[in-house]
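@channel sequence for tomorrow's demo:
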Amino acid sequence: MDNQTQSAAAAVSNSSAFSFISKGWREVRDSADADLQLMKNRAHSFKNLAASFDREIENFIHSATPAFSVPVIRQSSEIDFMKKLQPKISEFRRVYLAPEISRKVMEKWGTRANLWIDLSRIRSAIVAEVYETEEEDMDGIIELNKFTKGRRARFREEGQFGDWEPIRALKTKLREFEKKNSSVEIFGGFKNSEFVEKVKSSLKAICKEPQESKEVPPLDVTELLAYLVRQSGPFLDQLGVRRGEPPAVDPDKINDELDFRIASVLQSTGHCYEGGFWTDFMKHDVSDGKRHVAIVTTASLPWMTGTAVNPLFRAAYLAKSAKQKVTLLVPWLCRSDQELVYPNYLTFGSPEEQENYIRNWLEERIGFKADFKISFYPGKFSKERRSIIPAGDTSQFIPSKDADIAILEEPEHLNWYHHGKRWTEKFNHVVGVVHTNYLEYIKREKNGALQAFLVKHINNWVTRAYCHKVLRLSAATQDLPKSVICNVHGVNPKFLKIGEKVAEERELGQQAFSKGAYFLGKMVWAKGYKELIDLLAKHKNDLDGFKLDVYGNGEDAHEVQSTAKRLDLNVNFLKGRDHADDSLHGYKIFINPSVSDVLCTATAEALAMGKFVVCADHPSNEFFRSFPNCLTYSTSEDFVAKVKEALANEPQPLTPEQRYNLSWEAAIQRFVEYSELDRVLNNEQYGAKLRKSNGKIIAKSVSMPSLSEMVDGGLAFAHYCLTGNEFLRLCTGAIPGTRDYDKQHCKDLHLLPPRVENPFYGW
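structure tokens (generated this afternoon):
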């Protein structure tokens, strides 16, 4: 039994070995057949190249023949010229396809060489005729990249074609024909010189002049040092180091000249920058003809805060143009957090319920149906920071097919603890809009100076790593990398209509304002209540008889009210309400002493309603100074003077231009311009600058690596590593368990558990 088993095993082994050898022989045979076929194809393609040259010559000859009748005398002259050319062309074909040439090609054929043909004689003969006034040394080597997989053949033989008698004869006949009929019109105003020029240009097209090989001088030491100093900017910005004042000459012009100089040197060497370790150029490609804009914010209605209201209006008015699809991504809070954040204990059982509330609120104020999508991401409320912190990777809630343009409302806030996909890798263009002066709030806390120092550098870090462009609403915000200052907010159209109604009443002689002054804002000390009470207490006697109504709710309400009562201030505290409420229309003066705001929405709304605004001379109010009804003060004594001036006079009606500047239409126009969104929406490549130099197009962004991009990528990678450590997150103030969303978020938003969504494979 054992012998039979061994015999069977040996038979199976022999059969397997024979099968393996047969299979290997078939593969060798198939490979050899494929190589032979490839060699034959290459030989045929080389002969086809010669034949195509002959066809081009004949096409030029036939194209010169008119398609309609012409005088016989003129036609015969041209036909004689063509007949003399025909034998020369036939001779040219015989020489070009000579057997000895094909033999030498096959002898020198290699599987990994380059195919080169020396056409210096052809090129010199033709180009010398076409460019009679130009004489240049050219090597005349034409590379034929006709084969794939890196397999090329090289053939180069100096003087192989002798003196090229056919070309010399062709050149001579062209010159004789041009001299003979230099001043005679052939037909219909068509001159023989035009015919000759056509033949010359056609010959030039066959033996195309190689790209200009003029050498570009290398970079000198001064240029290298200038580029190094300029590229050190990211490091200096990250460290908070201020550089010297810019020169009198436009620095952008100097930088562009240096960039294109370096680009030209790199291009002359054949170098093409394909991206570095941190960069990823495989971005979303627009396939449906419409761009996609995703607006990500840190708050949502019914929380009446600037980061909930303004992004909502921005989404509505961006979608109104119908040039792009818009998605608004807002945080979803579990019911326990909703009770802490939303007013009047308002809660929602599902995202769909909250979305309906948001849309109804919006449509009541803008007067049209906004066509945009509302999505939710998991968030948790931080009592210490009084803000919503994202839980998990926020970017994953924008599908890859819609990941085109991202607008990050409060980019530093969104990315403090962001542990996920880098925004600038997933999106083609990322714009950050800074709403809050966090440093001003932090300085008021315990150990505020140290905390502000750390937060300042963290904000620099995350905005540089995750944004292409940053918009600051005013100079009251932190000076961040890649940032420009521009007010990109507007006011609710409802306030502009109230202002128009007030102006109409005044024109009819009716009293528009029956009340005095008021202040409206969240009742926390940092929102201007400290400054307000200090001013009223210091000048209680100067403002004798002045009464102020204050509307607001907040964490510090009890303390603020008790302080005002203790100082015996003439202040009447009322519950917070919507600024568009009818009870507020009759006030003539809006008082806003806050210096912590970046751009006070309530100030813009009061101006839109035609009221006086008394506010501090502060960078946050810079945009409002152009309005005549805005009265700014720099000292406490000046505050008293401005209040008395407002009480004694009537506000001026807004002009149409002033009303437009306050509108969301104007705000969107400013946003599109300053965020470079207009260029992106027009499908221009981000960061690409083109310049024509010596007849060649030089693309700066493609031709040269950017140290700034490498720094940004390194910062993003380091941030990703640090935010992945739960201990470090807790040390910096993160809410426990916010690196991923929790079970309640999975249930509310119908999400897969984090371990299923992002599995971790290991031992």
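heads up for whoever presents: The domain at 493-662 is CATH 3.40.50.2000 (Rossmann fold).
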